[in-house]
């Protein structure tokens, strides 16, 4: 079985790696990002009706500025984010299916003024007519160079799980910097957008059926059980 490499930052890296191992995969965790807090301008909670949150990292790194916002309901992108919101003392209005744009389609009546707390790297959103949204960047992912052990691992056939477009782009850049051939490496991406961010030259790029970790690991398990005996041309993103 070819190894599955997980490069997302902690604490998600350990959680994904453990889940993959429990499913029978040869999973190796190498966090290629360190999440750090960013200073952000405090806001008056009375200016907003709800919070739009796309990552549990907001509650881990948002700092004291979150305290005054606890009275605002949270629209959380997924279960992990919703759980982090509740643990931080917030009330969750809606838990989405891991798609930020979908949260905007589920807004409750009266929630027209939104505050989005987010990371430095984020996707653009299209607001429904009559809605307004301010953004505050409260954390950032700082990329790390490939450690020697991972560099050696990627010189042989491997599957890499990609949880973000930023991770896809960083992996590509590091392979170029280290002279690692991409053809023997297959990518399992959380979404087609993330897979496309990795560019071409990979042995295979496949996208999970749903943009959540469970579906991504199911895809990776399927890919791990179908070892690739040799190199073949890149194929279009599937999902």
Please explain how this structure is put together.
- The chain contains eight helices and eleven strands.
- With 239 residues, it is α/β, with parallel strands linked by helices.
- The protein has two domains: 4-32 and 144-224, 3-Layer(aba) Sandwich (Rossmann fold); 35-141, 3-Layer(aba) Sandwich (Rossmann fold).
- The protein starts with a strand and ends in a 15-residue tail after the last helix.
- The relative contact order is 0.17.
Task: Let me know the number of strands.
Answer: 11
Count of alpha and pi helical runs: 8
CATH topology of the largest domain: Rossmann fold
CATH architecture of the largest domain: 3-Layer(aba) Sandwich
What's the number of domains?
2
Care to give the gist of this entry?
This protein is of the alpha/beta class. 29% of the residues lie in helices and 23% in strands.
Defining traits:
8 helices, 2 domains, Rossmann fold, five-stranded parallel beta sheet, 23% strand, six-stranded mixed beta sheet, 239 residues, alpha/beta
Task: Give the topology, please.
Layout: E1 4-6, H1 12-22, E2 27-29, E3 33-37, E4 50-53, H2 57-61, E5 74-76, H3 79-87, E6 92-95, H4 100-105, E7 113-119, E8 132-143, H5 148-153, E9 158-162, H6 165-178, E10 185-189, H7 192-197, E11 204-207, H8 213-224
Parallel strand pairs: 1-2, 1-9, 4-5, 4-7, 5-6, 7-8, 9-10, 10-11
Antiparallel strand pairs: 3-8
């Amino acid at each position: 079985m070819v190894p599955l490499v997980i490069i997302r930052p902690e604490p998600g890296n350990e959680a994904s790696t453990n889940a993959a191992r429990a499913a029978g995969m040869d999973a190796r965790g190498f966090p290629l990002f360190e999440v750090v807090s960013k200073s952000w301008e405090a806001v008056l909670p009375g200016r907003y009706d709800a919070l739009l949150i796309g990552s549990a990292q907001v509650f881990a790194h948002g700092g004291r500025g979150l305290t005054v916002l606890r009275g605002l309901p949270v629209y959380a992108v997924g279960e992990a984010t919703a759980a982090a919101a509740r643990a931080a003392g917030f009330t969750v209005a809606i838990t989405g299916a891991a798609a930020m744009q979908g949260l905007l389609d589920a807004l409750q009546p009266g929630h027209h003024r939104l505050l989005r707390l987010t990371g430095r790297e984020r996707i653009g959103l299209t607001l429904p007519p009559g809605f307004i949204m301010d953004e505050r960047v409260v954390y950032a992912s700082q990329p790390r160079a490939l450690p020697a052990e991972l560099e050696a691992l990627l010189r042989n056939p491997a599957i890499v799980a990609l949880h973000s477009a930023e991770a896809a782009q960083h992996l590509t850049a590091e392979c170029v910097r280290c002279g690692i051939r991409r053809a023997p490496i297959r990518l399992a991406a959380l979404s087609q957008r993330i897979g496309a961010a990795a560019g071409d030259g990979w042995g295979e790029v496949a996208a999970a059926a749903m943009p959540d970790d469970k579906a991504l690991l199911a895809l990776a398990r399927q890919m791990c059980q179908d070892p690739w005996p040799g190199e073949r041309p890149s194929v279009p993103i599937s999902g």
